From TrEMBL:
Transmembrane segments: none annotated. Residues 2-172 form the AAA domain. It holds the Pfam family AAA_31. This is ParA family protein. CDD domains: ParAB_family.
Amino acid sequence: MILALANQKGGVGKTTVAVNLAAALAERGRRVLLVDTDPQANASSGLGIRVSAERSLYAALVGRVPVEKLLVKTPFGLDLLPSSVELAGAEAEFLELPERERLLQRTLSPLFSRYHFVLVDLPPSLGILTVNGLCASQGVIIPLQCEYYALEGLSLLVRTLRRVREGLNRDLFLFGIILTMYDKRNRLSREVAEEVRRHFRGTVFEEMIPRTVRLSEAPSHGKPITVYDPRGPAAEAFRRLAKEVEERARQEKASG
Protein backbone atom coordinates (compact mmCIF):
# COMPACT_ATOMS: atom_id res chain seq x y z
CA MET A 1 0.00 0.00 0.00
CA ILE A 2 1.25 3.48 -0.90
CA LEU A 3 0.59 5.99 1.88
CA ALA A 4 1.41 9.71 1.87
CA LEU A 5 2.04 11.49 5.16
CA ALA A 6 0.66 14.99 4.75
CA ASN A 7 0.09 18.12 6.78
CA GLN A 8 0.97 21.57 5.45
CA LYS A 9 1.35 22.77 9.04
CA GLY A 10 4.93 22.29 10.22
CA GLY A 11 5.91 20.91 13.60
CA VAL A 12 3.15 18.30 13.89
CA GLY A 13 5.46 15.27 13.98
CA LYS A 14 4.87 14.25 10.36
CA THR A 15 8.44 13.18 9.60
CA THR A 16 8.78 11.59 13.04
CA VAL A 17 5.76 9.44 12.21
CA ALA A 18 7.07 8.65 8.71
CA VAL A 19 10.49 7.47 9.92
CA ASN A 20 9.33 5.54 12.97
CA LEU A 21 6.24 3.97 11.44
CA ALA A 22 8.42 2.77 8.53
CA ALA A 23 10.93 1.28 10.98
CA ALA A 24 8.20 -0.36 13.08
CA LEU A 25 6.59 -1.91 9.99
CA ALA A 26 10.01 -3.20 8.88
CA GLU A 27 10.55 -4.64 12.36
CA ARG A 28 7.33 -6.62 11.81
CA GLY A 29 8.91 -8.23 8.75
CA ARG A 30 7.28 -6.06 6.09
CA ARG A 31 9.13 -4.81 3.02
CA VAL A 32 9.08 -1.03 3.41
CA LEU A 33 10.22 1.90 1.29
CA LEU A 34 10.35 5.41 2.76
CA VAL A 35 10.32 8.16 0.11
CA ASP A 36 11.59 11.54 1.31
CA THR A 37 10.08 14.29 -0.88
CA ASP A 38 10.85 17.16 1.51
CA PRO A 39 13.79 19.39 0.45
CA GLN A 40 14.73 19.67 4.13
CA ALA A 41 15.56 15.93 3.95
CA ASN A 42 14.70 15.39 7.62
CA ALA A 43 13.45 11.84 7.03
CA SER A 44 16.76 11.01 5.36
CA SER A 45 18.92 12.52 8.12
CA GLY A 46 16.65 10.91 10.74
CA LEU A 47 17.87 7.56 9.40
CA GLY A 48 21.48 8.75 9.33
CA ILE A 49 21.52 9.24 5.53
CA ARG A 50 22.82 12.35 3.78
CA VAL A 51 23.32 12.37 0.02
CA SER A 52 24.16 14.76 -2.80
CA ALA A 53 21.60 15.85 -5.38
CA GLU A 54 22.92 13.24 -7.84
CA ARG A 55 22.11 10.43 -5.37
CA SER A 56 18.71 11.75 -4.31
CA LEU A 57 15.10 11.63 -5.51
CA TYR A 58 15.82 14.85 -7.42
CA ALA A 59 18.11 12.96 -9.85
CA ALA A 60 15.33 10.48 -10.63
CA LEU A 61 12.65 13.15 -11.07
CA VAL A 62 14.73 15.05 -13.62
CA GLY A 63 15.60 11.81 -15.43
CA ARG A 64 19.33 11.76 -14.71
CA VAL A 65 19.48 8.47 -12.79
CA PRO A 66 17.12 5.44 -12.81
CA VAL A 67 15.23 5.41 -9.52
CA GLU A 68 16.32 1.83 -8.74
CA LYS A 69 19.94 3.01 -8.50
CA LEU A 70 19.10 5.61 -5.85
CA LEU A 71 17.62 3.29 -3.23
CA VAL A 72 19.53 3.19 0.05
CA LYS A 73 19.34 0.07 2.19
CA THR A 74 19.33 1.31 5.78
CA PRO A 75 20.60 -0.69 8.79
CA PHE A 76 17.02 -0.69 10.09
CA GLY A 77 15.46 -3.15 7.64
CA LEU A 78 13.84 -0.59 5.34
CA ASP A 79 14.83 1.08 2.08
CA LEU A 80 15.04 4.84 1.68
CA LEU A 81 14.74 7.04 -1.39
CA PRO A 82 16.55 10.08 0.02
CA SER A 83 15.94 13.77 -0.58
CA SER A 84 18.29 16.70 -0.96
CA VAL A 85 18.01 20.48 -0.81
CA GLU A 86 17.96 20.68 -4.63
CA LEU A 87 14.32 19.56 -4.52
CA ALA A 88 13.51 23.07 -3.26
CA GLY A 89 14.08 24.39 -6.78
CA ALA A 90 12.10 21.58 -8.36
CA GLU A 91 8.79 23.41 -8.01
CA ALA A 92 9.84 25.96 -10.65
CA GLU A 93 11.45 23.30 -12.88
CA PHE A 94 8.38 21.06 -12.86
CA LEU A 95 5.93 23.83 -13.75
CA GLU A 96 7.04 23.65 -17.38
CA LEU A 97 6.57 19.89 -17.69
CA PRO A 98 3.50 18.15 -19.16
CA GLU A 99 1.48 16.18 -16.57
CA ARG A 100 3.75 17.64 -13.90
CA GLU A 101 1.44 16.39 -11.12
CA ARG A 102 2.18 12.76 -12.09
CA LEU A 103 5.97 13.03 -12.24
CA LEU A 104 6.52 11.28 -8.89
CA GLN A 105 4.02 8.55 -9.74
CA ARG A 106 5.81 7.80 -13.02
CA THR A 107 9.18 7.84 -11.26
CA LEU A 108 8.16 5.50 -8.42
CA SER A 109 5.90 3.09 -10.32
CA PRO A 110 8.72 0.57 -11.12
CA LEU A 111 9.24 0.15 -7.35
CA PHE A 112 5.70 -0.31 -6.06
CA SER A 113 5.44 -4.08 -6.55
CA ARG A 114 8.60 -4.69 -4.47
CA TYR A 115 7.14 -3.46 -1.19
CA HIS A 116 4.29 -4.15 1.21
CA PHE A 117 4.31 -0.47 2.23
CA VAL A 118 5.61 2.66 0.52
CA LEU A 119 5.47 5.67 2.86
CA VAL A 120 5.85 9.07 1.19
CA ASP A 121 6.91 11.88 3.53
CA LEU A 122 5.57 15.11 1.99
CA PRO A 123 6.81 18.68 2.53
CA PRO A 124 4.89 20.92 4.98
CA SER A 125 3.21 22.82 2.13
CA LEU A 126 0.49 22.39 -0.48
CA GLY A 127 2.82 22.93 -3.46
CA ILE A 128 3.60 20.80 -6.51
CA LEU A 129 5.71 18.25 -4.56
CA THR A 130 2.81 17.60 -2.18
CA VAL A 131 0.33 17.28 -5.06
CA ASN A 132 2.75 14.85 -6.73
CA GLY A 133 2.86 12.77 -3.56
CA LEU A 134 -0.94 12.69 -3.34
CA CYS A 135 -1.22 11.65 -7.00
CA ALA A 136 1.24 8.80 -6.43
CA SER A 137 -0.49 7.46 -3.30
CA GLN A 138 -3.50 5.34 -2.49
CA GLY A 139 -4.15 6.65 1.01
CA VAL A 140 -3.25 9.66 3.14
CA ILE A 141 -2.14 9.66 6.77
CA ILE A 142 -2.52 13.00 8.55
CA PRO A 143 -0.43 13.44 11.72
CA LEU A 144 -2.11 15.91 14.08
CA GLN A 145 -0.51 17.26 17.24
CA CYS A 146 -2.47 17.25 20.51
CA GLU A 147 -2.04 20.97 21.03
CA TYR A 148 -4.03 24.18 20.69
CA TYR A 149 -4.81 25.01 17.03
CA ALA A 150 -4.53 21.30 16.14
CA LEU A 151 -7.46 21.57 13.74
CA GLU A 152 -6.26 24.87 12.28
CA GLY A 153 -5.50 24.43 8.60
CA LEU A 154 -6.93 20.94 8.51
CA SER A 155 -9.94 22.04 6.47
CA LEU A 156 -7.55 23.46 3.83
CA LEU A 157 -5.72 20.12 3.65
CA VAL A 158 -9.00 18.20 3.38
CA ARG A 159 -10.07 20.55 0.55
CA THR A 160 -6.78 19.86 -1.25
CA LEU A 161 -7.33 16.11 -0.88
CA ARG A 162 -10.81 16.53 -2.34
CA ARG A 163 -9.48 18.52 -5.31
CA VAL A 164 -6.79 15.95 -6.02
CA ARG A 165 -9.35 13.15 -5.77
CA GLU A 166 -11.75 14.91 -8.14
CA GLY A 167 -9.20 15.95 -10.75
CA LEU A 168 -6.10 13.77 -10.52
CA ASN A 169 -6.41 10.65 -8.36
CA ARG A 170 -9.95 9.33 -8.06
CA ASP A 171 -8.89 6.48 -5.75
CA LEU A 172 -7.21 8.67 -3.10
CA PHE A 173 -8.73 8.30 0.37
CA LEU A 174 -8.05 9.36 3.95
CA PHE A 175 -6.37 6.31 5.45
CA GLY A 176 -6.26 7.74 8.96
CA ILE A 177 -5.33 10.47 11.41
CA ILE A 178 -2.51 9.91 13.91
CA LEU A 179 -2.50 11.97 17.10
CA THR A 180 1.03 13.04 18.02
CA MET A 181 2.77 14.80 20.93
CA TYR A 182 0.19 13.37 23.34
CA ASP A 183 0.73 14.01 27.05
CA LYS A 184 -1.85 12.21 29.18
CA ARG A 185 -0.98 14.45 32.18
CA ASN A 186 -1.96 17.54 30.22
CA ARG A 187 -5.66 18.43 30.21
CA LEU A 188 -5.45 20.34 26.92
CA SER A 189 -3.81 17.33 25.28
CA ARG A 190 -6.64 15.07 26.42
CA GLU A 191 -9.30 17.58 25.31
CA VAL A 192 -7.78 17.98 21.83
CA ALA A 193 -7.62 14.20 21.40
CA GLU A 194 -11.31 13.92 22.35
CA GLU A 195 -12.29 16.76 20.00
CA VAL A 196 -10.42 15.24 17.03
CA ARG A 197 -12.03 11.84 17.68
CA ARG A 198 -15.46 13.51 17.74
CA HIS A 199 -14.81 15.30 14.43
CA PHE A 200 -13.35 12.28 12.62
CA ARG A 201 -15.14 9.25 14.02
CA GLY A 202 -13.61 5.97 12.91
CA THR A 203 -10.73 7.63 11.08
CA VAL A 204 -8.43 8.37 14.04
CA PHE A 205 -6.03 5.60 15.05
CA GLU A 206 -6.44 4.31 18.59
CA GLU A 207 -2.71 4.54 19.27
CA MET A 208 -1.38 8.01 20.08
CA ILE A 209 2.28 8.99 19.87
CA PRO A 210 3.50 10.37 23.20
CA ARG A 211 5.71 13.41 23.61
CA THR A 212 9.01 12.08 24.99
CA VAL A 213 12.56 13.41 25.25
CA ARG A 214 14.00 10.24 23.72
CA LEU A 215 11.76 10.55 20.66
CA SER A 216 12.96 14.12 20.06
CA GLU A 217 16.61 13.02 20.52
CA ALA A 218 16.51 10.05 18.13
CA PRO A 219 16.79 11.98 14.80
CA SER A 220 20.04 13.67 15.86
CA HIS A 221 21.50 10.17 16.32
CA GLY A 222 20.25 9.05 12.90
CA LYS A 223 18.18 6.22 14.37
CA PRO A 224 14.48 5.39 14.61
CA ILE A 225 13.11 5.26 18.14
CA THR A 226 12.69 1.47 17.92
CA VAL A 227 16.50 1.25 17.79
CA TYR A 228 17.50 4.33 19.81
CA ASP A 229 15.23 3.55 22.78
CA PRO A 230 13.71 0.13 21.98
CA ARG A 231 11.96 -0.40 25.31
CA GLY A 232 10.70 3.16 25.78
CA PRO A 233 7.06 4.27 25.57
CA ALA A 234 7.43 5.92 22.13
CA ALA A 235 8.95 2.78 20.57
CA GLU A 236 6.14 0.66 22.00
CA ALA A 237 3.56 3.17 20.71
CA PHE A 238 4.98 2.96 17.19
CA ARG A 239 4.93 -0.85 17.32
CA ARG A 240 1.25 -0.81 18.28
CA LEU A 241 0.56 1.81 15.59
CA ALA A 242 2.31 -0.35 12.96
CA LYS A 243 0.04 -3.25 13.90
CA GLU A 244 -3.01 -0.98 13.56
CA VAL A 245 -1.83 0.30 10.17
CA GLU A 246 -1.33 -3.25 8.93
CA GLU A 247 -4.79 -4.29 10.09
CA ARG A 248 -6.40 -1.25 8.46
CA ALA A 249 -4.50 -1.88 5.21
CA ARG A 250 -5.74 -5.48 5.24
CA GLN A 251 -9.33 -4.30 5.71
CA GLU A 252 -8.99 -1.76 2.88
CA LYS A 253 -7.60 -4.43 0.57
CA ALA A 254 -10.43 -6.83 1.44
CA SER A 255 -13.14 -4.19 0.94
CA GLY A 256 -11.57 -2.68 -2.19
